[in-house]
């Protein structure tokens, strides 16, 4: 059942959809799927739930809110329960606003255990001194560390912290591997446990009709492991509409790496392909400076004439300052870039930067609303709390709206 304030949502989104339709109309004769049309215009927005973030309750609510806000794609861990949570959130959003566009669902995998997106923090709280100030708990952006001090029975002084012990530790499903806890531990007790997603399980996920895209994270340290993963995925790769490759800027060899990867992909490339320029991974929630590296990455590639075909999208350090930085570089929804080299494969009607993926920052601004829901509700469904849903949606629109060109809406 729709929340009692659904009328407010519908009214607000009627204006949003009208603006979006007007923008789509500017590309006459564009018969691509709406998600691809957004990439061509340069107003594609992707929500990154986190390649290692597996808290299904949060993923569900984030997917619901950002679907209402109009994202084109939701990227999540390649885990069946997480994919189910994303699709549940999308379905609820569609039940509230039936005309909402259904975003593509993307699963993220890696070809190398050295990729920072695929690791979890780990430590034994019994190794922690009981009087530790717990800086790891304070610095964690995902609220993935919970430590409680308990007193040991029959101790002589219940008020002395050294007479107790710490219990709890890392909440594994919430940890997404940012690594901020590693450097702040005063006793160097925290470890990063890396892993690689199982290609066989990923191949099964790609056969589902509610998975539309895959993103392969590669570290830029050669193509052998990418080629091996691609081979292991086999024919399952033909089931998706979009194949994305996320990679860092490795300097002058970046374009050669991309072309080598593209050569490998051509054997099974039946849909669209996208290059995710991962400037400064998992840092968007830090501040203005975090977005510089991904914009610099885009500027670097814009000057290269031999870059491979496909759409280009920013990630890694993206936040509310990213559009401003892109505009200063002349790259926001631009089909040309002064001084840039022209690629023989570039469509002159296609924006060079197809869009922006928002991860840590997107989760932060909506997450602080989710944290307001009283604890007694447990894993709350945000649609059961319409005031919080509207507040979360307002936060999401503040991020998605400037990319999409939505009109300024009154407070919901």
Automatic annotation (TrEMBL):
Residue stretches making up the 4Fe-4S ferredoxin-type domain: 119-150, 166-195
InterPro entries to which the protein is assigned, alphabetical: 4Fe4S_Fe-S-bd (IPR017896), 4Fe4S_Fe_S_CS (IPR017900), Fe-S-bd_prot_LdpA_C (IPR021039), LdpA_Fe-S-bd (IPR057431), PSI_iron-sulfur_center (IPR050157)
Alphabetized PROSITE patterns for the sequence: 4FE4S_FER_1 (PS00198), 4FE4S_FER_2 (PS51379)
GO molecular function list: 4 iron, 4 sulfur cluster binding; metal ion binding
Pfam family, one: LdpA_Fe-S-bd
Entry keywords, A to Z: 4Fe-4S, Iron, Iron-sulfur, Metal-binding
Protein name, per record: 4Fe-4S ferredoxin-type domain-containing protein
Organism the protein comes from: Oryza rufipogon (Brownbeard rice)
